[in-house]
Amino acid sequence: VELVESGGGLVQPGGSLRLSCAVSGSIFNIYAMGWYRQAPGKQRELVAGITSRGSTNYSDSVQGRFTISRDIPKNTLDLQMNSLEPEDTAVYYCNARHTYYRDYDYWGQGTQVTVSS
C-alpha cells in the first residue's frame, strides 16, 4: 500500500486547507484510514479517523472544524480543515491500518501545514 499526501501549505489563522491522500489500490473496505499530525517536539497524534465501515472519529481539538472523507472510486482520503489555528501547525500524515491484521500498517511521507499570520 502506498500513500501520497498533498495539499499542505501556509495559511492564515481562520483559513482553510484541504489535504488529500492518494491511495494505491481499493483498500477502504478492509482498512481503517486516518490522518495524524506531529508538531515539533511533540508526539504524533490522531486527528481524524474513518473505519472500513465509514464511521468517523475526531480528536477533541479539531472536532467541529475538520472533516475526514473518502472517495471510494477515486481511492482518495481527504481532510477538510476549517477555522485553522496556529496550534494546528504540524506535519500531517495519512495512515492505513488493516482492520484485522494490525501489522499491515502504512504511512505516507507527510505534508507540512503551517498556520501563521
Please write out the topology.
Blueprint: E1 3-6, E2 9-11, E3 17-23, E4 31-38, E5 45-50, E6 56-58, E7 66-71, E8 76-81, E9 90-98, E10 105-107, E11 111-115
Parallel strand pairs: 2-11
Antiparallel strand pairs: 1-3, 3-8, 4-5, 4-9, 5-6, 7-8, 9-10, 9-11
Structure description:
This protein is mostly beta strands. Helix content is 0%, strand content 51%. It has strands at 3-6, 9-11, 17-23, 31-38, 45-50, 56-58, 66-71, 76-81, 90-98, 105-107, 111-115. Strands 2, 4, 5, 6, 9, 10 and 11 form a 7-stranded mixed sheet that branches. The chain has a 4-stranded antiparallel sheet with strand order 1-3-8-7, with no helix packed on it. The protein is globular.
Task: State the gist of this model.
The chain has 117 residues and is mostly beta strands. 0% of the residues lie in helices and 51% in strands. The protein is globular.
Q: Which structural class matches the secondary elements?
A: mainly beta
Shape: globular
Order of helices and strands: EEEEEEEEEEE
Percent helix range: under 10%
Mean pLDDT: 96
What Rg do the Cα atoms give? 13 Å
Number of helices: 0
Got a strand count?
11
Strand content: over 45%
The major pleated sheet works out as: 7 strands, mixed
Q: Uncertain runs with pLDDT below 50, 5 residues or more?
A: none
Distance between the termini: 37 Å
